[in-house]
C-alpha cells in the first residue's frame, strides 16, 4: 500500500478582513497517498486555492496540523518551506508563467539550477522531461514562439523535471482548448503512473474531473464530499 | 547561475540597457571630471613649480618674510657655496639660482629719445652654463614666438605680448632701470634676441628674462641670489620626500637667531598651493560622493521599476522553491554584473574624452586678460592610473546599493498570494 504523503488534521484558515475575520477553511481532515491523481472541486471562494497554498507550503494553517512529506507546514521557516518546494513539490499554473527571455530548454533547466546539479546531469534531466511532454524539437524556441498547448507542456516539464513527489496544478486547462486539454491531462496521467507522482488539482473543469481518481468537493471552506472514483489507485 | 543571469541581462535589454547607460554616464562623468581636475590643478601646480616655487625653494628668512616685494637686499650670499653644499647633501634634486627683480624698460628711438616705456617683471636664470636645465624646465625653446634664446651677456628675451605693447623687434635695444641690492640706482642696456609666450598671462605681459650673471652684475649681487630652487630629478612632485628634505635642511641650517640664515619651503608651503592641492582632493572626493548618491537614487528607482516588471518572474522562482534571500542575492549579483559592464563602458568613455582634453585642452586665455596668477592659459585634463578605478568602484557600488534598496521588496512578498498573482 502507498504511504501517506499529505495529512491534514483539523485545518482551519482564517484571514483578517478589516476589523473582522474571514474563515476560508473550516476543520479540514484529509489524507493523500503517494501516486494519487486527485482534485479539489468547488465554486469560487470554496477554499480550493487556500488548501493548495497550505499543501504547497506557500501558506500555513491558522489551526490544525498539515503534514506534507512528514514536514509540519506551520513549523517550517521561510527557508525550509522554499527547500520543501524546491525538492519535493512542483507547481503548474493556469497561466504557464514561462520566463520570456529564456528558451524552452532554459525554462525547464531553471528548476534544476536551484538544486546545484552538474551541467551534464541537468542536460540529461531536461531532455528527459522534454521527451515526456514531446517537446524536444522546440527546446531552443522562446516562449513567444510556441503555442498555448506547448506552453503548458513546457510548464509541466518544468514542474516534473526535478521528479517531485507532489505536483500541484491550479486550473491547468483553463486556458486550453478541448484537444490540448486532453493532451495535457493524458500526459499528466501517464507521468502519474510512470513516476508515481501525486497530482493534486484545483478545478471546476469537467474535462479534468473525468481523469481524476479522487474528487474532494469543497463548499464554503468545508469538505462536502470526498469521492473516490478508482479505488484500486487509492489502495 | 551566473551564466543564467548573464543570459537574462544580455537578452532582456530593458533589464540592462537603462542601468548600464545610467552607470556609464555617471562613471564617464566622474572619470572625466576627476581627470580634468587632476590635469588642471596639476598644470597649475606644475606651472607654479617651474616658474615660481620649485619643488622646494631656499631663501633667507628675511627675504621669505617679504618675498612678494622681491627684497634683493635680503638675498642669500655665497650662492655658489650653497649650491655646492646642496648638490653634495641632497643629490636627488637639481639646484638652480634665480633672481627676480623689477624695473622700468625704456625703448629708445633712432635718435636716442624715449619711444616707449613699461614696467617689467624680470627673472634671471642660469641660461649659459648648460647644466641648470632651466631652458628645458621653462620650455624656453618651444615657447619662443620670434627670434632665439640669448647666447651671451647683454642679451634678453621678452614676453611676446609685452614686446607688442612696446613695439619691439628682434635686435632692438632696451634699457632696464632698477635698483641694486644695496639700494642705489642701476641701469643696463640689453639687446632683444627673442619674444616668448609661456601661456601664462602674468609672464607674457611683462616678463623680461636675462642670464643670471647679467642680473648679478646689474644688481650688484656678486655671488648672491634671491632664491635657490630645487627640483626632484624624477620630475614628479613627491610631498613626503620633499617634506623630509625640507625638515632635515631646516633643522641643520635655519637659525632662529639669524634672519639671514636660509630656510627651505616646499611647494605646498608657498603661494597657497597647499589649499589648492587640498581643494583638488576634496573636489575629487565630492564628485565621487555626489555620483554615488545620485546614481544610487536613480538606480534604486530603476530597480523598483525592474522589480515590478519582473514581478511574475520572481513569483515563479518563489513557487519553484527559490528562497527570498537567494532571489535577493541573485538580484545583487545581477547588479554587480550590470555595474561592471556599465562601469567598464563609462571608464572607457571617460578616459577617451579625458585623453581628448589632454591633447586639445580648453583655452581659458580670454578669462585671464587681467590675471596676475601664474596659471596656464590652456587647461588640460590628465590621465592618471587612479582614473581607471575612480569611477569603476563607485559605479558598481551605486548599482548594487540601488538594487539592494529596491530588492528589499522581495522580502515583503507573501507566498500565499502567488496563485492569485501568477494567474492574472
Show the helix and strand layout:
The complex is a heterodimer of chains A (235) and B (424).
Chain A: E1 4-17, E2 20-33, E3 37-41, H1 48-55, E4 63-68, E5 71-72, H2 78-88, E6 89-92, H3 104-113, H4 119-132, H5 148-160, E7 166-170, H6 178-195, E8 198-203, H7 206-211, E9 214-219, E10 222-228, H8 231-234
Parallel strand pairs in A: 3-8, 3-9, 6-7, 7-8
Antiparallel strand pairs in A: 1-2, 1-4, 4-5, 9-10
Chain B: H1 2-11, H2 13-53, E1 56-60, H3 61-65, H4 79-89, E2 93-108, E3 114-125, H5 134-137, H6 140-143, E4 144-147, E5 155-159, H7 160-165, E6 173-179, E7 185-196, H8 201-204, E8 207-211, H9 212-218, E9 227-232, H10 239-253, E10 262-266, H11 273-309, H12 311-319, H13 324-359, E11 362-363, E12 378-379, H14 387-390, H15 392-407, H16 418-422
Parallel strand pairs in B: 3-8, 5-7
Antiparallel strand pairs in B: 1-9, 1-10, 2-3, 2-6, 2-9, 4-7, 5-8, 6-7, 11-12
Outline the structure in words.
- The complex is a heterodimer of chains A (235) and B (424).
- In chain A, 36% of the residues lie in helices and 29% in strands.
- Chain A is built from eight helices and ten strands.
- In chain A, helix 6 links the parallel strand 7 and strand 8 (198-203).
- Chain A has a six-stranded mixed sheet, with helices on both faces. In chain A, strands 2-1-4-5 form a four-stranded antiparallel sheet, with helices on one face.
- Chain A has helices at 48-55, 78-88, 104-113, 119-132, 148-160, 178-195, 206-211, 231-234, and strands spanning 4-17, 20-33, 37-41, 63-68, 71-72, 89-92, 166-170, 198-203, 214-219, 222-228.
- In chain A, helix 3 (104-113) runs parallel beside helix 5 (148-160).
- By secondary structure, chain B is of the alpha+beta class.
- Chain B folds into two domains: 2-47 and 275-422, no CATH class; 56-236, no CATH class.
- Helices cover 50% and strands 19% of the residues of chain B.
- Chain B has helices spanning 2-11, 13-53, 61-65, 79-89, 134-137, 140-143, 160-165, 201-204, 212-218, 239-253, 273-309, 311-319, 324-359, 387-390, 392-407, 418-422, and strands spanning 56-60, 93-108, 114-125, 144-147, 155-159, 173-179, 185-196, 207-211, 227-232, 262-266, 362-363, 378-379.
- In chain B, the strands form two sheets. Chain B has a six-stranded mixed beta barrel. A two-stranded antiparallel sheet of chain B has the order 11-12.
- In chain B, a hairpin with a 5-residue loop joins strand 2 (93-108) and strand 3 (114-125).
- Chain A binds chain B through residues 49, 52-53, 56, 58-59, 78-79, 81-87, 89, 91, 93-95, 97, 99, 101-102, 106, 110-111, 113-114, 158, 170-171, and chain B through 1, 4, 7-8, 11-12, 312-313, 315-326, 415-416, 418-420, 422-424.
Amino acid at each position: 500500500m502507498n504511504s501517506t504523503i499529505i495529512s491534514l488534521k483539523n485545518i482551519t484558515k482564517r484571514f483578517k478582513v478589516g476589523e473582522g475575520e474571514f474563515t476560508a477553511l473550516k476543520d479540514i481532515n484529509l489524507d493523500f497517498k503517494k501516486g494519487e491523481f486527485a482534485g479539489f472541486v468547488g465554486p469560487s471562494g470554496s477554499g480550493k486555492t487556500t488548501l493548495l497554498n497550505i499543501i504547497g507550503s506557500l501558506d500555513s494553517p491558522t489551526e490544525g496540523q498539515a503534514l506534507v512529506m512528514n514536514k509540519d507546514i506551520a513549523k517550517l521557516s521561510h527557508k525550509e518551506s522554499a527547500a520543501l518546494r524546491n525538492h519535493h513539490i512542483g507547481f503548474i499554473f493556469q497561466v504557464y508563467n514561462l520566463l520570456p527571455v529564456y528558451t524552452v530548454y532554459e525554462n525547464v533547466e531553471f528548476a534544476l539550477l536551484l538544486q546545484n546539479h552538474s551541467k551534464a546531469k541537468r542536460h540529461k534531466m531536461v531532455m528527459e522531461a522534454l521527451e515526456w511532454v514531446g517537446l524536444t524539437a522546440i527546446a531552443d524556441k522562446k516562449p513567444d514562439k510556441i503555442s498555448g498547448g506547448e506552453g503548458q507542456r513546457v510548464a509541466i516539464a518544468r514542474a516534473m523535471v526535478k521528479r517531485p513527489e507532489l505536483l500541484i496544478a491550479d486550473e491547468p486547462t483553463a486556458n486550453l482548448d478541448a484537444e490540448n486539454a486532453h493532451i495535457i491531462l493524458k500526459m499528466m496521467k501517464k507521468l502519474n503512473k510512470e513516476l508515481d507522482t501525486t497530482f493534486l488539482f484545483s478545478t471546476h473543469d469537467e474535462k479534468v474531473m473525468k481523469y481524476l481518481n479522487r474528487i474532494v468537493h469543497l463548499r464554503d471552506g468545508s469538505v462536502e464530499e470526498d469521492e473516490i472514483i478508482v479505488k484500486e489507485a487509492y489502495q | 547561475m551566473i551564466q543564467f543571469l548573464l543570459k537574462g541581462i544580455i537578452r532582456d535589454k530593458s533589464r540592462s540597457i537603462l542601468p548600464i547607460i545610467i552607470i556609464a554616464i555617471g562613471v564617464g562623468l566622474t572619470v572625466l571630471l576627476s581627470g580634468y581636475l587632476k590635469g588642471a590643478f596639476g598644470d597649475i601646480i606644475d606651472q607654479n613649480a617651474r616658474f615660481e616655487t620649485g619643488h622646494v625653494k631656499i631663501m633667507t628668512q628675511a627675504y621669505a618674510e617679504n618675498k612678494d616685494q622681491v627684497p634683493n637686499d635680503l638675498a642669500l650670499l655665497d650662492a655658489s657655496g650653497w649650491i655646492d653644499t646642496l648638490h653634495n647633501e641632497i643629490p636627488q634634486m637639481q639646484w638652480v639660482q634665480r633672481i627676480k627683480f623689477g624695473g622700468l624698460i625704456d625703448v629708445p628711438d633712432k635718435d636716442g629719445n624715449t619711444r616707449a616705456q613699461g614696467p617689467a617683471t624680470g627673472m634671471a636664470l642660469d641660461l649659459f652654463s648648460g647644466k641648470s636645465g632651466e631652458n628645458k624646465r621653462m620650455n624656453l625653446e618651444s615657447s619662443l614666438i620670434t627670434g632665439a634664446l640669448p647666447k651671451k651677456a647683454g642679451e634678453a628675451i621678452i614676453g611676446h605680448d609685452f614686446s607688442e605693447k612696446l613695439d619691439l623687434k628682434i635686435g632692438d635695444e632696451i634699457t632696464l632701470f632698477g635698483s641694486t641690492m644695496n639700494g642705489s640706482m642701476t641701469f643696463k642696456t640689453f639687446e632683444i634676441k627673442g619674444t616668448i609666450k609661456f601661456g601664462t598671462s602674468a609672464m607674457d605681459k611683462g616678463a623680461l628674462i636675462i642670464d643670471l650673471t647679467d642680473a648679478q652684475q646689474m644688481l650688484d649681487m656678486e655671488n648672491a641670489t634671491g632664491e635657490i630652487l630645487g627640483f626632484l630629478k624624477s620630475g614628479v612632485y613627491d610631498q613626503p620626500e620633499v617634506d623630509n628634505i625640507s625638515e632635515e635642511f631646516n633643522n641643520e641650517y635655519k637659525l632662529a637667531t639669524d634672519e639671514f640664515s636660509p630656510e627651505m619651503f616646499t611647494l605646498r608651503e608657498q603661494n597657497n598651493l597647499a589649499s589648492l592641492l587640498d581643494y583638488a582632493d576634496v573636489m575629487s572626493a565630492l564628485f565621487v560622493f555626489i555620483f554615488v548618491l545620485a546614481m544610487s537614487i536613480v538606480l534604486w528607482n530603476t530597480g523598483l521599476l525592474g522589480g515590478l516588471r519582473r514581478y511574475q518572474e520572481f513569483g515563479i522562482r518563489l513557487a519553484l522553491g527559490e528562497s527570498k534571500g537567494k532571489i535577493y542575492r541573485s538580484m545583487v549579483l545581477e547588479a554587480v554584473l550590470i555595474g561592471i559592464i556599465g562601469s567598464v563602458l563609462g571608464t572607457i568613455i571617460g578616459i577617451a574624452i579625458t585623453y581628448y582634453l589632454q591633447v586639445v585642452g580648453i583655452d581659458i586665455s580670454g578669462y585671464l586678460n587681467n590675471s596676475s596668477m601664474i596659471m596656464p592659459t590652456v587647461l588640460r585634463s590628465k590621465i592618471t592610473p587612479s582614473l581607471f578605478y575612480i569611477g569603476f568602484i563607485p559605479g558598481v557600488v551605486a548599482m548594487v546599493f540601488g538594487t539592494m534598496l529596491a530588492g528589499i521588496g522581495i522580502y515583503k512578498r507573501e507566498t500565499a498570494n502567488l496563485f492569485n498573482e501568477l494567474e492574472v
